Amino acid sequence: MSRGSAARPVSPAPRLPSRLATLRAEPGWRRIDLISDLHLSPDMPATLARLRAHLSATPADAIFLLGDIFEAWIGDDARWQAGTFEQFALELLRGVSARKPLFFMHGNRDFALGEPMAEDAGMRLLPDPARLEAFGRGWLLSHGDQLCLGDVGYLRARAAVRRPGVLAALRAMPLFARRALARHLRAKSRMHQSDPSTWADVDDDAARAWLRDAGCDTLIHGHTHRPALHDLGDGLARAVLSDWDYDHGPGRGDVLVMDARGLHRIAPMHAAAPDPHAGGGSP
Ligand code: MN
To answer: What is the 3-state secondary structure (H, E, C) of 230-248?
Structure first.
């Protein structure tokens, strides 16, 4: 498989964990929604509203959030601060998990979201990658960043930032300082917005190796913001989730729906319209 310029350095492919987390769909599940890369922040109210609308309208039996749902997660303690974005996120997720199973996998942006927040929100944290058995097939779920082997600098930074000492140091900062830091990083990243088509992509050889080792036929991931379904040969495939943005431009985002027929992509649903025949009726 070509990786573009042969001279470009690439990181070694990560090995599939020897004890791969495996999740079995419940027999009654008829539809699963998979979503990633909303990059939610206090600056993205329309995107947050669209997620809320979809989650309240979808008939899915389970929801999988596959990373970078949040642009940054400044710490689980932020959820107690009244009137904040984090408290709103907690209420939203709690409302969903009260009705159906909700799973959360970390992305590279929201990896600091911890067990206390997950537990409070009623969602189950999934390791990356994780295997899902559903509708008679094995699916491999990942955020995807670990497989972008051409992104050497990023992968090095990824390992550094996830050292326990770094997280502990961040958590020791006062909340107002973490909020200010997140604001600063958001402003900086807006200034240096690069074109996603120039980003490193998931390495197809590494994806195939993971799929074979996991005994799965399809890898589902986000991170690259390049929604597609790639045929990897030998019955293997790679399904890529889209990012969401309803705050700038015409709005984009999609949901990958898994059911007995396979995978298909839909636009996020709008909140269900009130039934005109319900209640008191109209004159
Ligand atoms: Mn990402």
So the answer is: EEEECCEEEEECCCCECCC
pLDDT digits (tens, 9 = 90+) for 187-241: 877 766 667 777 789 999 999 999 999 999 999 999 999 999 999 999 999 999 9
Q: Are residues 260 and 134 in contact, defined by beta-carbon separation less than 8 angstroms?
A: no
Residue carrying the six token digits 């980003």 = 199
Distance (Å, whole) CA 219 – CA 239:
6
What SS3 class is residue 170? helix
Instruction: Give the pairing type, strands 130-134 and 137-141.
Output: antiparallel
Q: Any idea which residue has 């970390």 for tokens? A: 106
**Centroid of ligand 1 to alpha carbon of 128 (angstroms):** 12
Q: Which residues surround ligand 1, an ion (CB under 5 A)?
A: 68, 107-108, 223
φ and ψ of 156, to 5 deg = -65, -45
Let me know: does 30 contact 60? Beta carbons within 8 Å. Answer: no
**Reported confidence tier of residue 105, pLDDT bands at 50, 70, 90:** very high
